[in-house]
Amino acid sequence: MKSTIFFSVTGILVSLAASQPHGPHHQHVKRQAQRKVVIQTTTAVAIVDAPQVVIYVDSQGKPVSTTTRNSQSPSTPAPLPNPAPVPAQAPAPAPAPAPPVNQQNGSPQGSAPPTQQNNPPAAGDSVSTGPGFKSGVSYSPYNGDNSCKSADQVAKDFTKISGYQVIRLYGTDCNQVANVLAATKGSDMKLFLGIFNIAQVQKEAEIISSAVRGDWSRVNAISVGNELVNQGTNPGTVIGAIGQARGALKGPGYNGPVVTVDTMVAMVDHPELCKASDFCAVNCHAFFDGKTPADKSGDFVKGWVDKISKATGKTVVITETGWPSQGDNNDVAVPSPQNHKAAMSSIEGALSSNVIYYSAYNDMWKTNRPGTFNAEQFWGIMGNAPSA
Fold first, then answer.
1. Contact status, residue 304 vs residue 284, Cβ threshold 8 Å
2. What is the pLDDT of residues 271-282, one digit of tens each?
3. Given 56, 158, 237, 264, which is the most exposed site by the fewest CB atoms within 10 A?
4. Stated pTM of the model
5. 320 is catalytic
6. Which of 204, 206, 227, 320 is catalytic?
7. CA triplet 382, 51, 36: central angle to 5 degrees?
8. Considering just the CA atoms, what is the radius of gyration of the chain in Å?
9. What is the mean pLDDT of the chain?
10. Which of 197, 163, 136, 161 has the alpha carbon at shortest distance from 322?
11. Are the C-beta atoms of 69 and 44 separated by less than 8 Å?
12. What 3-state DSSP class applies to 310?
């Protein structure tokens, strides 16, 4: 597993409105927050082709959200402004840059997989690629010490994952594409794969192609980057990487959807990201809003889906959403096992399709930080992984 050492960078961004902020080793940066004077801090530890964590704070220096490069905004999305002010980056839960450090191992068991996904489609049907599936879940192949899980460990984790049509991966390190393909062989689950490092698009595309071995029917979609614009990358750079990825994947025979994933605020402020993608792939976490209680999460996420769809004219797939079972309160957003279940139930009731939950298991390889309400490790739907 490749590792790169970065130093924290603190920048001061001033904007007029609001903002919100979860890859291979991807961590959340503060997301949804109100755009005021924002201090953005991005810290990445050993990066295994993974996103970085960004923390957003208000004018008093109070953290408002987190993300693995992602952003959020007010609880009830207002009508799309003409050019909306550039959102401040905020932290968010789950996958991110280099695998974060592990914390405690007695986290509460999360809720069971969403019940709305009955009757998963058979392999090869019209739901095998892109939008049209009911629900999915994200998965990261890292141990608590940031080392790569073995093929046997990955297989053990997938003995508990069922009922989902799509599995989202963030990158290509740790042989994760081949290992998850093997672990899900014989099931109806498709993979939402990821090219995490846009500086190595060709290399990661080749790793994906080698693992797939010509059977692209197992692939639902491929993302290029995770919350990069929310973290400060120029939209034009990301759009260029999308085009490069399409070219690199076409040769080996892939003709399915290619997208970039970013936060809801980034997608609203930069609709060109959706236009360059085959559909809008959006990370959206009500927890980082701070004004939305767990049982209203579904309304929050659905509001953003409708807003982005109307603004872009494209289908929206929620590529990350959930609620932590442990951590510090974010105003009315309170992490707990009960609220985790309440949020999941609310989201299931509001979204009947095209939603990927974050995440299958607690990510003990991540580092909990005050900026992300010390909840980074505890978004797992099924608690700690069997291989932990």
1. yes
2. 999 999 999 999
3. 237
4. 0.73
5. yes
6. 320
7. 100
8. 18
9. 78
10. 136
11. no
12. helix
